[in-house]
Amino acid sequence: xxxQLHPMMLVxxxxxxxxxxxxxxxxxxxxxxxxxxAPFKAQNMSLNSYATPDGLEIGRAQAVQAEAASIPCxxxxxxxxxxxQGDLTSQVVLLGRPVGNMSAREYFRNEGREQLxxxxxxxxxxxxxxxxPIVLEGAGSISELNLRDRDIVNMPMxxxxxxxVFLVGDIDRGGVFASVYGxxxxxxxxxxxxxxxxxxxxxxxxxxxxxxxxxxxEKLCHVPVVGVVPYYQDxxxxxxxxxxxxxxxxxxxxxxxxxxxxxxVVLLRHMSNFTDFDALEQRAGxxxxxxxxxxxxxxxxxxxxxxxxTTINDLEQLxxxxxxxxxxxxxxxGATVLGICGGYQMLGTEILDPLHLEGCRERMSGIGLLPVSxxxxxxxxxxxxxxxxxxxxxxxxPWLQGYEIHMGHTVPLSGHAxxxxxxxxxxxxxxYQVNRRLMGTYVHGILDNSLFANQLLSSCQATHEYPTxxxxxxxxxxxxxxxxxxxxxxxxxxxxxxxxKIYDILKINFR
Length: 511
Known about the structure:
By secondary structure, this protein is α/β, with parallel strands linked by helices. It is built from 16 helices and 28 strands.
């Protein structure tokens, strides 16, 4: 039997320093080394979420980390999920189920905070009873002085878990000495002693040129630097934060390039689950970009309207920017249009909100391409699904996989027959398909399935000179591709950190 390890906690000098990706890497490394790891993040704020096998909702990052650890994801891995609905409010998801909408002031008030802390700690304890080691992830900076007494995700969580803490600093953004030293010095002495190592992330250039920097940082901080992880661009790991969208393509390629299919994802203010497009983005011959103005759609071969946390609000924004008319115009000139989740609702004729869940309007006209009506409901659907494409023979079509996370029910308008896009394994149906150039679905992850992606791209193949692997692509499925990427990430991090020292730290004085 392998020796038990302390929990490992990755905290940061700030947001977007790479904690989530490093947690994913260590989940994979521990798995490869014979342990049974599991991820944990007490509180997550993200519009990228995922449905667990038992129909609960967690942050997408913890689902990715669980996948890297080769275990099913569960609500205990992310007991509190905050899904922003505007500048001031968020939907609060506790242990996988929504419990209401709160402003930041309401959420961070002292009243009820200890009960929330108990829920989070109990979730960790249940997880730690079954897995070892737990790889914990902090949130933002560990040194937000104004939030210290209400913090449930960083050092107080590390204290409850008995975790060895590793501080991650991002050298690519500059000021790494000040950010690491300042973060440590702002901690109380008791918490500072819990930090057992420093990881410098996103290093560019010759690693040996930073040897002096490592010695200086260790002398300054009195904490060992256990790794300097190089910046990478050739490994594909799903990202948690919408801040990553700033690095995505924002314009189409010229129509003169017959080897490229321009896929435009309409950029929504409250876009959710942008990881829906990662698989499509990886395909040869596909140029996927995010469109924010009508002119951005003029050269699009395929237009995708993605999910949204606030469908009516985002539809109003599209209308103000005349993007709704641009989507219709793109379809009329021959582009394929697909709506996913909130985007499916927007493509319909109307959206009804009788309970005022998204504001004071009870009815709003949709873009009008699909003859369907949506009613926003107070019941949230969260589930994984198996499905077949409705217009393909069942005997020739394998079961595909995806998941649903939505509040709303969509039906055809009176006088219009049902024309589902998918048939679920439980006998129900999903979506609406006018033809192969116009369709909508509630299924997130539908584009991860090569069979559907091929069908979507078929509208481009008549006019584009695609490489063979795209025309006839049934090859490496996306799940296999992701497993390969986890292995590559683990190798990248393992080569850049002192795993022997990390194991020594995690084994010392095990209680």
